[in-house]
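Dear support,

I submitted the protein below through the web form. The confirmation email said the job was done, but the results page showed an empty box. After a refresh the structure appeared. I'm attaching both so you can tell me whether what I see now is the final result or a partial one.
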Amino acid sequence: MSTPLSRPASNEYAPYYETYVRLVTDPLQQLRDQLGQLRQLVQTLSDEQARLRYAPGKWSIKESLVHIMDTERIFAYRALRIARGDTTALPGFEQNDYVPASAADARTLESILHEYDTVRAATLCLLESLRPEDFDRLGTASNNPVSVRALAYMLAGHEAHHLQILRERYLPLLA
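What the results page shows now:
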């Protein structure tokens, strides 16, 4: 797909996701660009530094990275099912249950970054394989309507949101 996807209409996603959608102009290009952006921000961190939490009760950098991947996998799965015409209502997920279950802090940062590269490659392959009309398909996830187009925007915007938090709240503590 060479032309950017049009911005989803407000009825293509739950209002909660506006936080992410507004951070995106060209979701597929942004997903490609984020590969280098994320790596540039964290690749020089030690495993100890990547366990940093900017405040008590907040996720570590490693946990945030795994959260980005978990969410990407779920959003991409939703996009696949909806793009293929599956009309089954898809359940939500509780991110606060996923993070501790990931055991991210016990992993090396390099293993997390390798997995991130792999997950992103799969997401891009999926989205780039879709036909323009597939992005128009609507389904239901977390009891709300959602289009494949909106999911592409939400994928890129969710990561943009977390990269912003990383830059503003975590990295200054390591300077």
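Response: this is the final, complete result; the empty box was a page-load delay. The chain has a mean pLDDT of 97.
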